[in-house]
Amino acid sequence: MPRLTSKQPKEISTPLVLLMTCWALIAMPSWGDTLTWGVVNYPPFDITHGPYAGEGVNDRVRAFLQERMSGYEHAEVVAPLPRVLQEIHQGKPWCTVSFFDNPQRREIGLMSRPVMFHLPHSILVRRDKAEQLSLSGDPISLASLLNEKVFTTSTLRQAAYGENIDKVLAGAPSLYAYGDPAQGIQMLLAGRIDFLVEKRLPGFYMAMEEGKLEELVALPFAESGPIGIGRILCPHSKWGEEVIGLIDTILAKNVSSQAYRSIIEAWQQSEGLDIIREQYDQIMLK
């Protein structure tokens, strides 16, 4: 009969310890199991408060995806745009809806296929200033307005407006940058700036919240560019690649459905709704 030695308990317990360690690691959620969605208050795309909270276009896109991404725990953090971009750029397990696809955004993270689209930007102006701006040309030129330095404006910090507009703004004199989209509309309505480059939909929504919808006019301008296409942005990492891959798979299966079409059509007025329906298949079903 072999003699028991002091080594035998160690030899017997080691596999057990290893097995228990493996069980613990399997049971413990990994750092990347929680997908944090960065939310920038930008109604009616992201609506973070008020009677319509959670019913924005981006809110509904997130909810649609979360229902089909059961392998992840989902958290939502309302934060300024610069912080959301910083978290993604640093490789944190964050994603956000929805951003233009451009070289600057590609440096920050990975982009999904299109998740939504919106009408071109307009120049928003108070009704009492609309005639003065209209005299600057037909259509109005943003570059001319900035070069003339007669009318004042401001821009959203770290925003991307589209290739044409971004080029004009990059060559413009130093402009004050605000951090919250609602702040730009508030400054415009208060008379602190003369005009604002913004999408019609959030511009009019935020003016409505201020009770000043009738005071706002949207003017087309030469550099406004084509329809804006929004995508989901996630970090440059293996985790980000997996998340984007899953999102693209879900979108490929669902964007043709009436349920998803209704998300993109939400909050549109009749003119915008006609354009959205006319362009939907060409943009979303590629």
Ordered list of secondary-structure elements with their pairings:
Layout: H1 7-27, E1 34-39, H2 57-67, E2 73-78, H3 81-89, E3 94-99, H4 103-108, E4 109-118, E5 122-126, H5 127-134, H6 142-148, E6 155-156, H7 163-170, E7 177-178, H8 181-189, E8 195-198, H9 200-209, E9 216-219, E10 228-235, H10 238-254, H11 258-265, H12 270-284
Parallel strand pairs: 1-2, 1-3, 6-7
Antiparallel strand pairs: 3-10, 4-10, 5-8, 5-9
Helix pairs in contact: 2-11
Total domains:
2
> What general outline do the C-alpha atoms trace?
globular
Strand content: 15-25%
**Into which percent range does the helicity of residues fall?**
40-55%
- Most strands sheet: 5 strands, mixed
CATH class of the largest domain: Alpha Beta
Oligomer class: single chain
The CATH H-level superfamily of the largest domain is Periplasmic binding protein-like II
Give the C-alpha Rg. 24 Å
Q: What is the typical, i.e. mean, pLDDT? A: 86
CATH architecture of the largest domain: 3-Layer(aba) Sandwich
